[in-house]
Amino acid sequence: MTFRRLAAWLLAAVASYQAHAAEELRLQAEYPLEGMAGGNLSALARCDGQLWAVSDRDDQWLYRLQPQVGVWQAEAQPLQVPPPPATALTWGLAWRNRLSGLVRGGVLDFEGLSCDAAGNRYVLSEAYSAVLRVTPQGQGEWLAIAPEVFRLARASGLLLDYNALAEGLAVAADGQRLWLAAEQRRRGLLVLQPHRSGWGCSDPCVLLAEGGEQQAPAALGGERLAIDFSDIVRRGDKLFTLERQAHQFCRRDAHSAQVERCWSYAATALAAPRLYPGVDYGTAEALWLDDDAAWIGIDNNEVVRADGEARPVLWQFAAPAGGWEAS
């Protein structure tokens, strides 16, 4: 490599790093959540002007989050959930998921939440890799997802490992496109749209499939952990992926999944009072973005925080100057 080509490569690498370097967010408020029967806050979405949440330990509730001074109240709203569909997961994964759910609670293992402009809620079951569409009246119906989606996902190395399956969900406002985030060991993004026979692949079906590891912060033990996605949000033509192990979320092009910009919440998450003793991984499971704020939900998995807080926690961060879409 000539000196000129080496210099050009270094300049490009520096420019790429600067473009993707995460800006630290400013914490505005922290709200413990009361009223989540099983705890384990696992997804957020703003529907009809209100924040809603799900828990991966409760199969029969959606939670409407009601702001109060200091502590927010999670109001349980009943779900009418029909029997889950036949899973497209391998036999071994399917049975392991069911047994785990029976032991710990939450057989469906809700891990994603989104809504469309018509007021329908969409809830992702990790245990079945299935999506429940819930009408404004609370009636649930499982979407028919074509087997080819899972064949292509597995061919790309996605949805193959126990407890590392579909972890995030985003839906277009018109309800005609749906994105799924595969969690880890190989993380990825899938995009689906309705066809005559059910929900099938868009073009392409697999937007992203990648593996790799990164070193955890020293405060969490410094071990190498798989890169991951723990939630996904759609705004306009952008996707925002919550990357739990990196303590950040990133804006991506919704058609190519190319990273455009990232924001970090590491200073908040790694502050000594907010650490969870014995937990050597990130705990952020839920993301939602308003014009003026980012909301991140913490799944404490029933572990008591260093400062004694035992409830799920919601963080509110100020949006950056120029908003989430600014370059």
From TrEMBL:
<feature type="signal peptide">
    <location>
        <begin position="1"/>
        <end position="21"/>
    </location>
</feature>
<dbReference type="InterPro" id="IPR027372">
    <property type="entry name" value="Phytase-like_dom"/>
</dbReference>
<keyword id="KW-0732">Signal</keyword>
<feature type="domain" description="Phytase-like">
    <location>
        <begin position="39"/>
        <end position="185"/>
    </location>
</feature>
<protein>
    <recommendedName>
        <fullName>Phytase-like domain-containing protein</fullName>
    </recommendedName>
</protein>
<dbReference type="Pfam" id="PF13449">
    <property type="entry name" value="Phytase-like"/>
</dbReference>
